[in-house]
Write a structure and sequence with these properties.
By secondary structure, the protein is mainly α. It is 63% helix and 0% strand. The chain has 6 helices and no strands. The chain has helices spanning 4-22, 50-60, 62-85, 90-103, 113-122, 130-139. Helix 2 crosses helix 3 and helix 5 crosses helix 6. It starts with a helix and ends with a helix.
Length: 140
Amino acid sequence: MTNDYTDVTATTSEQSSKLIMDIPPTPVAPKNKSAPKKKANAAHKEGVFSPIVMAAGTLLGPDQLNKVRAKAITLHSDLIKSFVGTSDSAIGQTVLQQLFKYVDADNSGFIDKEELSVALSLLGFRWLKEKQVNGIFDRA
């Protein structure tokens, strides 16, 4: 008595291997390796200026909005440079001393990480995480 199952599987295996051998390999195109997209910081999506940015994006379109943003960033940077440039003047020193006194909550004469975190939050940097505040503190 012959084993019909063995005969069927042998035939099927032979047919399968023949079919596989008769099919030419399909070339695989290399994947287009583009630069990975930068993750958007979710904390930056909700802020003081978010409604203005969203409205401007709708009205202006993405290209014009990016030009306006670039101009605003340039103006902001110039303002910061001019403020930093006055830090050596008598008025600049007075302002810095008052800011320091306000931030130095324990009157230790030093600003610790907790005081820095509170100061940054008061200045609107509420989205900064502890790790980022630590990095700022370590660079100071």
